[in-house]
Amino acid sequence: MPKAPLVAACGFALLLCACASTNVANQENLLIRAGFRPMPATTPEWMTALKTLPKYNFARQTIDGKQTYLFADPRICKCVYVGSAQEFAAFRQLMIDQGLLTNEEAMATLDKVNGPSGHSE
C-alpha cells in the first residue's frame, strides 16, 4: 500500500481532532465570558453530572428552584459549566456576534434545550 495516502489520511484525522479541540476551547471561552461558572468534577455529585449530562451540549435543569443551564466538558476542563437563563442568552448572543451561529441556529439551540416553544417550563 502506498504510504502517501495513509500519511495524508492520518494528517487529516489529526487536523480534525485539533479543530474539534479548538472549537470546544473557543466555546468554553465564550461560556466564561457569558458568565457560566466551571464546576470541576471533584465531588461525587459533579462527577456523576459530568458522566450523565450530554457531552458538549446544553441541558436545562431546575436547581434550587431556578432554571439552570449545564454544559459538560469531560475532556478539556473535566468540568460542568453552570449558568442561568440570562447567561445562556448571553452565550448565544456571543456565538452570533462571533459569527459561529446564525439567528436561526441560535433559535434551534434554544428549542433543543427548552423545547419547541423556546420557553422555559
Automatic annotation (TrEMBL):
PROSITE patterns: PROKAR_LIPOPROTEIN. Keywords: Signal. It comes from the Bacteria. Residues 1-20 form the signal peptide. This is Lipoprotein SmpA/OmlA domain-containing protein. It comes from Limobrevibacterium gyesilva. The lineage of its organism: Bacteria, Pseudomonadati, Pseudomonadota, Alphaproteobacteria, Acetobacterales.
